[in-house]
Amino acid sequence: MIRLRHSSFSDRTTSAAPPAPQGWEETRAEEAKSQRRSAELIRQEEVDKEEEGETSAFLLPSAEAVQLLKSPIPTNRPMVDQHGGYNVDEALLSVGFGKFQIFVCLYAGLGWISEAMEVMILSFIGPSVKSQWDLSANQETLLSVVVFSGMLLGAYMWGVISDKLGRRNGFVVTAFVTSLAGLLSAFAWNYVVLLIARCLVGVGLGGGPVLFAWFLEFVPATNRGMWMIIFYSFWTVGTIFEVGLAWIIMPRLGWRWLVGLSALPSFGLLVFYPLTPESPRYLCLKGRKDDALKIMENIAKLNKKELPPGVLLTDREIELQRQVSKPEASATDSPSSAPRWKDSDLGVIETLRMLLSPRLIRSTILLWFIFFGNAFSYYGLVLLTTELNRKSHCNSNGTQSNDKSDAGVDYKNVFITTLAECPGLLISALLVDRIGRKISMAALFFICIVFVLPLVVHRSPLVTTILLFGARICITGTFSVASLMAPELYPTSVRSTGYGIANCVGRIGGMVCPFAAVKLMESCHQREALLLFVGVIVVGLFSVLLIPYDTKGRELTESISSTKHDKHRQAV
């Protein structure tokens, strides 16, 4: 039982102190009343959980409730804010974006480079392996499909693991799997072994969203849009580097050397892993507030800034104090009406139910359509870059010719088209914090349609390269903005899982697109393939327009309970 120590409380409030501002006595009295009601709410939650036979590991212990009652009340200054402390978002705003975030950005960016290289390599090893092992078109297509199948599995699996066991534990395992499977691919002695190895590479690559979410949780809300787009530029660096590497390696050393060298960035993640911190948002969500505070203090020290005055509070504690500090709250309010805060220890089924709950289902479903459209279009354009430049094996009447002398990859055109990702990122970086996420994506989707449609009829190599360049600019921009907006829409308790599942759906688009970009093109059905691309992009465009609200400038929330109250809260 919690007993109020009236004597000690009175001693504190009557001890000598500098003159208080006018009206501060009333504020102190109201504050003490709020503290007592907060403790009662906490204790009532514990009693309710014990009666239900459920674990209360994620609830504050009774000792913490007592500490809340016994905490000293300031007598000579107002509180920092209405809650008497600050949350992680306010702490990040105070310490700003500095050396610490740059280190985190470089580390996560290395993982992003690794994933981009492993995806871009699909444009090169397929034709080369097909020629060396005399594979059919279906077997060549399957080399891409198994990678995206692995990414589909990994995106969900690593998202759940990182939400349950921590962001660090999630991305270190993905780096280990990707690097080893990449090396195994280089030494594959037959087609089946290569398929298995590439599938395992895909499983490891599925953890990319974990690194993205991890970096996002260290970035202040006011800088988030610009820096997340800058972070996405590491993907572009990876694709350009892979094309340049293929241009040098493939004609001289072959595909095995290219595959082996492309696995090296994943080993870099393992080397620098001991230096990486856990996400303070995740630690707060799991009740490890002291650990979160230590990390925030290290960030402030490295950035040469100071944390806000007061104490670090979780969204749960802020919500409890919000409940008890409402002026209209009456003494008859039931403590059981306080939020239950079950988000912090969710199982797989509970997580899925939360993502499909009334508050999140609309955003979740629409994000699935957006990610499917983005992945289908982006990876399709990557594969089309090589296929459209190898298309002269089709006769004017749409039938295949026997001349395969042009079956090699035109590295020059592929390199030029890949450079389009640079202006794509620049445009999205300039727009995302000015006109918002929704308008940026919608505009870029529409312009992408304008570039893709002429490819239905134009066959000139120069025109094809120009149109692919423009389309690649737009789809890179939409992909980067979508990757920024998706984790912003979800609370910390399901952020990695929600973003991971959205990427899972995107991987399905990646699995399907080889049949359009390779299979249809190999059978000389260019018009049908490109009209399919246009249709998918149109679906993505309308899905963007139906997203319920823009996340520009919004603070990240810890739980679905705080999502309800933070829907209209803007970062200051």
Automatic annotation (TrEMBL):
The chain crosses the membrane at residues 102-129, 141-159, 171-189, 195-216, 228-249, 255-276, 360-381, 414-432, 439-457, 463-486, 529-549. One of its GO terms (molecular function) is transmembrane transporter activity. It is a multi-pass membrane protein. Its main location: membrane. Residues 1-55, 322-341 are annotated as: Disordered. It comes from Linum tenue. InterPro entries: MFS_dom (IPR020846), MFS_sugar_transport-like (IPR005828), MFS_trans_sf (IPR036259), Sugar_transporter_CS (IPR005829). The lineage of its organism: Eukaryota, Viridiplantae, Streptophyta, Embryophyta, Tracheophyta. Residues 25-46 have a biased composition (Basic and acidic residues). Keywords: Membrane, Transmembrane, Transmembrane helix, Transport. The keyword DNA repair does not apply. Pfam families: Sugar_tr. GO terms for cellular component: membrane. Residues 104-552 form the Major facilitator superfamily (MFS) profile domain. It is found in: Membrane. This is Major facilitator superfamily (MFS) profile domain-containing protein. PROSITE patterns: MFS (PS50850), SUGAR_TRANSPORT_1 (PS00216).
